[in-house]
Design brief:
The complex is a heterotrimer. Chain A is mostly helical. Chain A has 3 helices and no strands. In chain A, helix 1 (about 15-35) runs antiparallel to helix 2. Chain A starts with 12 loop residues before the first helix and ends in a 10-residue tail after the last helix. Chain B is mainly alpha-helical. Chain B has helices spanning about 25-30, 35-40, 45-70, 85-120, 125-150, 165, 170-200, 210-245, 255-290, 295-310, 325-355, 365-385, 390-395, 400-430, 435-460, 475-505, and strands spanning about 1-5, 10-20, 430, 505-510, 555, 570. In chain B, the strands form 2 sheets. In chain B, strands 1, 2, 5 and 6 form a 4-stranded mixed beta sheet that branches. Chain B has a two-stranded antiparallel ribbon with strand order 3-4. In chain B, a hairpin with an 8-residue loop joins strand 1 and strand 2 (about 10-20). Chain B is globular. By secondary structure, chain C is mainly α. Chain C has helices at about 5-10, 20-55, 55-60, 70-95, 95-125, 140-145, 150-185, 195-220. Classes of the chains: A mainly alpha, B mainly alpha, C mainly alpha. At the A-C interface, helix 1, helix 2 and helix 3 of A face helix 2, helix 4 and helix 8 of C.
Chain lengths: ~100, ~575, ~220
């Protein structure tokens, strides 16, 4: 059994370099959007996080090889994000809706 | 002996091997000496080391409990423990029992030993990591003990801010110890998930896995998702004390209730880490001792996962009186009711399994029956506590104390005892004294109920928890409760005695003393170093007591021309 | 059954069917650990979200104190280090021992660059008295832009997020150095490079966290 060829995806240098370039571009884009084109809230955050998600997708799919990997690993990654959102969302149900706006004096 | 799986399949000639009842070599004899134990990567030895550690901490935590109860014999006149010491005692009792006993107990002690055997694997996925998990547990424990020796701890095991940010006791060291301990839990969970995915024996589909494995799988998921949040909470608390970070300090703009959110985001799923493996043991013991297949396999399997998921959404029910927003409180109350449903399903399925079963009241089964009664009370009282209107009155009273002792001790601990007695022959190769076992289980059952049933009553009448004295109307309840705790102590000491005694003087255990169909019983007691001489292939459903025992024994398919109409005893 | 080359029999553990099985298990284990790390940082991000929802003005004012240029450079440094670690894995997969060592070295160097830039940032803040928590003692130039009574909360969160992240970088450096040493001894090849793969995954995770950290802390306007 030839383990090196068996199922392990080997990216080419060009592929990896393109991904790195994509990430670099997105980094410049997000700084540009935040500092030069200053969008009113909440659009500023939405745009920044969308670009961050795009970068995360590139890293996850092509650097961490999820694109070629078993779908279960994708499920793990996505699932952990979902749990994070659950944690935040349910906590915000409390912190955003208290009678006293801010818990201090 | 030929096996026909279905009418369409050709019969296969198989040579069956009955595991030897008197193996000359097993995992205990093949690696000997202290150094071999300390550097072992064998999951069986690691499981035993965890068991010894957990027993040790249980003894300490139990001793603290007896001290507490003795103090509470009288509201005021027992003066060898003053108020400050009382605070330290209940804090330590809680912290030790939760973090060092209950969370690791069934998964790390019994789970480590049994999981690979039930899967037909030779070990867990990452044996060295397994040993690492054990040492991390030990180091965490040492830190905690240094802390206790240094300055004690009186914040309650829940470390609520703002007191825990300011208390002069060793909060920093204890939280650091628990932080380290958390990694043990996380790594064990990671190990188990990978093992269950990757190391099942050929033929063992997800639908053929024993329910104990499903339970350990759900537990491991909770461990991996919840424990890191505890870790970061403890880090934030440590930074609060060291740097004055202020995230939980109202004067600096923070929020003490936020600590409670973060803390309970872990600690509520933590109680499911404690109970879900107990459910797994219950499935094993009840089927074996009713010689009947489980009622509702998929219901039980999937309800473990459902509990794991919904259990993450209910943490606010510990905080109904903390000043949470009304909408959060309502949502948490509703979700708390939901989480009782899969649990209730399990209880009903086990009862249905018992119905018309061929019941054998051996010690493990007595514990399982105790579990059904005690845990049901605990579970129902949990639902009543989830009702907002009730909780407002009984929050921080003995009602809560009784509830969680009914589920954690009456649930997890009794299931641990059931599992320990069930798998004792497999682990040690010895049988304990059955009569003493029955007496022990009776003492535990009676002692437990005498201790904690009065606490429900006095809690509903308003007796607050964590108080070192009380008004006269509660005296009879406290006295009864303390007497119960002494009965419990006698029971536990008896168990310790006859289990230890069996190690030296117990009868030799056969490979399968209970006649179970599960895979771990198809190898010798104790098992060989690598668990199975050959990789088992699973054909039948688990718990299929309709089929004869021979069909579950391990065998080798023969060249179909050979004659094989007898079962051979395995030559060891 | 199992591979029987001499290099394999020492590396192939007995409870796995073959090295492929072992590789798959190692990867799954690492992904489960990544889930765990995401929840760990998740707690900190949760605190960030809660406090930003409570004190939006504070976050807007305090962002002036963070240098988006340095943060951006650090982002590019981490992207480059992800690239080099992916190249290292590729080198292992293609039996390129020299490439493996070089790319591991580049990754380590880039990681140090990240930490050095971070040290500059922290140092600059300390000069302005922007210490975490109770030690927060802002210099007058800070108070011109940032005059919020709860300002120390922002910096507490900032230091916790970037500090915990930096600790993970340090741990990663340790792991990479260990890989570099083992690569130097010829331990990795196209037949066995599990440690390189899983340390690579860990390193990408560290990059992933920073991808979210950067806009949330440095790019608030």
């Amino acid at each position: 059994m030839n383990t090196s060829a068996h199922d392990h995806h080997i990216s080419t240098v060009k592929q990896l370099f393109l991904v790195a370039m994509g990430l670099t571009f997105l980094t410049f884009l997000t700084v540009f959007m935040a500092k030069v084109i200053v969008l009113p809230e909440p659009f500023g955050i939405i745009v920044a996080l969308t670009i961050a998600l795009a970068k995360a997708f590139l890293v996850g799919a092509f650097f961490m090889n999820l694109y070629w990997d078993t779908k279960f690993h994708v499920l793990l990654l996505v699932g952990s994000f979902l749990f994070f959102f659950l944690m935040v969302g349910v906590t915000l149900l409390d912190t955003l809706y208290r009678d006293d706006a801010i818990p201090s004096f | 002996m030929t096996t026909a799986e279905a009418t369409k399949v050709k019969s296969l000639k198989v040579q069956r091997f009955q595991p030897s009842d008197n193996p000359t070599k097993n995992f205990l004899t093949e690696e000997k000496g202290v150094w071999a134990w300390m550097t072992t990567v064998d999951h069986k030895k690691i499981g035993i080391m965890y068991l010894v550690a957990v027993t040790f901490f249980f003894a300490i935590g139990g001793f603290l409990a007896v001290l507490l109860r003795t103090k509470l014999l009288s509201g005021s006149s027992i003066s060898f423990i003053d108020a400050n010491q009382y605070n330290q005692l209940f804090t330590l009792h809680g912290a030790i029992m939760v973090f060092f006993v209950l969370v690791p107990s069934i998964p790390a002690a019994l789970g480590n030993f049994i999981l690979p055997l039930q899967l037909g694997a030779k070990d867990v996925a990452f044996p060295k990591l397994n040993l690492g998990s054990f040492y991390i547990y030990v180091i965490g424990a040492i830190f905690t003990f240094i802390a206790i020796a240094a300055n004690g701890l009186d914040t309650g095991w829940t470390f609520y801010t703002p007191y825990s940010s300011e208390s002069g006791t060793s909060v920093l060291l204890v939280t650091f110890g628990v932080f380290i301990l958390g990694f043990s839990s996380i790594l064990t969970g990671t190990n188990f998930i990978t093992t269950i995915h990757k190391l099942r024996a050929p033929g063992m589909t997800w639908g053929k896995m024993p329910l104990n494995v499903w339970a350990l799988y759900a537990t491991s998921i909770i461990q991996v998702l919840a424990t890191p949040v505890l870790a970061i909470t403890l880090v934030l608390l440590m930074m609060e004390r060291v740097l004055g970070i202020g995230i939980f300090d109202s004067a600096l703009g923070g929020d003490p209730v936020l600590f409670q959110h973060f803390f309970w985001f872990y600690s509520h799923p933590a109680v499911y880490i404690m109970i879900v493996p107990a459910f797994g043991i219950m499935s094993e013991v009840i089927t074996t001792f009713s010689r009947k297949t489980i009622f509702g396999y998929w219901a039980i399997a999937l309800s473990s996962l459902a509990i794991a998921f919904v259990g993450f959404l209910v943490w606010g029910h510990h905080m109904f009186t903390s000043g949470q927003s009304p909408i959060a409180t309502t949502v948490f109350s509703f979700l708390t009711f939901l989480v009782g449903i899969p649990t209730g399903m399990k209880i009903l399925n086990w009862l249905a399994t018992l119905y018309k079963g061929s019941i054998k009241l051996d010690t493990p089964m007595l514990y399982a029956l105790s579990f059904l009664f005690i845990f049901s009370i605990g579970g129902f009282t949990g639902i009543t506590l989830g009702a907002l209107s009730v909780d407002i009155h009984v929050h921080d009273t003995y009602y809560v104390v009784a509830h969680f002792h009914y589920v954690m001790m009456g649930g997890t601990l009794i299931a641990l005892l059931a599992g320990l007695h069930y798998w004792w022959p497999k682990i040690t190769g010895k049988m304990y004294n059955e009569t003493l076992g029955k007496i022990g289980s009776a003492l535990i059952f009676i002692g437990f109920n005498v201790t904690f049933l009065p606490q429900f009553v006095m809690g509903s009448q308003g007796m607050p928890r964590r108080y070192y004295n009380y008004i006269d109307q509660f005296a009879p309840f406290h006295i009864a409760s303390t007497i119960g705790s002494y009965i419990l102590s006698v029971g536990f000491l008896l168990i310790l005695y006859y289990l230890l005694h069996s190690l030296w003087k117990g009868k030799r255990a056969p490979a399968n003393p209970w006649g179970s169909r599960a895979l771990e019983w198809q190898t010798t007691s104790p098992p060989p170093l690598h668990n199975f001489e050959h990789s088992p292939v699973v054909i039948n459903e688990p718990y299929d007591y309709h089929r004869p025992m021979e069909e579950f024994q391990l065998g080798i398919a023969l060249d179909q021309g050979e004659d094989s109409d007898h079962t051979e005893k395995e030559k060891v | 059954m199992a591979n029987h080359s001499s290099a394999q029999t020492t590396l192939h553990e007995h409870h796995f069917v073959d090295t492929d099985h072992q590789f798959d298990a190692a990867k799954l284990g690492m992904w489960v650990f990544i889930v765990n790390e995401i929840l760990f940082f998740g707690g900190l991000f949760c605190a960030y979200i809660i406090f930003r929802a409570w004190y939006p003005d504070l976050f807007q004012q305090a962002a002036y104190q963070l240098n988006a240029v340095l943060g951006g450079i650090n982002t590019l440094v981490l992207i480059a280090s992800s690239f080099t670690v992916a190249m290292a894995i590729r080198s292992a997969q293609t039996d390129n021992q020299k490439g493996l060592r070089n790319h591991l070295l580049f990754t380590i160097i880039l990681a140090f660059v990240f930490l050095i830039i971070k040290a500059f940032e922290y140092n600059h803040k300390f000069e302005l008295g922007l210490f975490p928590g109770a030690y927060y003692n802002p210099a007058p130039e800070v108070l011109e832009h940032l005059n919020h009574p709860k300002a120390n909360i922002f910096f507490s969160i900032y230091y916790m997020l970037t500090g915990v992240h930096a600790i993970h970088i340090l741990i990663g450096i340790g792991l990479l150095i260990s890989l570099y040493i083992r690569a130097g001894r010829g331990r990795f090849s196209s037949k066995f490079y599990n440690p390189v793969e899983i340390v690579g995954l860990y390193w990408h995770l560290v990059d992933l966290i920073w991808i979210f950290l950067f806009p949330l802390l440095y790019l608030i306007e």
